[in-house]
Amino acid sequence: MNSSHEIARTTLLRRGFALEYTTLAWNVVGIVVLAVAAISARSVALAGFGLDSLIEIGASTVVVWELSGTGAERQRRALRLIGGAFALLAVYLMVQSTVVLIAGYHPQPSLLGIVWTGVTAAAMLALAAGKARTGAALDNPVLRTEGKVTFVDGVLAAVVLLGLTLNSVLGWWWADPMGGYVIVFYAVREVREIYSGEH
């Protein structure tokens, strides 16, 4: 019975590592794609989404580190690091959205940006669901919490996609920064829960 439990746990750990390495690889490629798209379209939103990809890389690295070891203190430290990533994401989105709205900055349409954010939204939401299930099966709060970072990444990709599409089709340049405030609210809530010990 114990041997079967260990085999199941090992399988779940492998799945957790696979999910995190997939997330890491996707975001490394994404930084390059987003840099090209942001420069060609002069898009603050796409450049900002590249920064979000950096935060996701950091969060995934933390989970890989945590899954490689054991202990409550290691989990607490990993959760605090992920909480820091959420805080950075909230600050970045608040500043970016406010600056874009005040400046009235009008980015150029970006087909590359629309395609990449659309595919990224689907990929990140699928990865987030996998992390939530695997984290629950392992009873690992770090993997579950980082899955929420991935979920935010997917929602942010969808928000950026909506903003890029509305700007391209209707000229609604303000749609993207307004949507950013929705993600700020979610990220701040997660930071509060992590540091209050609710996770």
UniProtKB/TrEMBL annotation:
Its main location: membrane. The chain crosses the membrane at residues 21-39, 45-67, 79-105, 111-130, 151-175. It is a multi-pass membrane protein. Residues 24-191 form the Cation efflux protein transmembrane domain. This is Cation transporter. It comes from Streptacidiphilus alkalitolerans. The keyword Transmembrane helix applies. It is found in: Cytoplasmic vesicle, Secretory vesicle, Synaptic vesicle membrane; Early endosome membrane. The keyword Zinc applies. It comes from the Bacteria. Belongs to the TMEM163 family. PANTHER family: TRANSMEMBRANE PROTEIN 163 (PTHR31937).
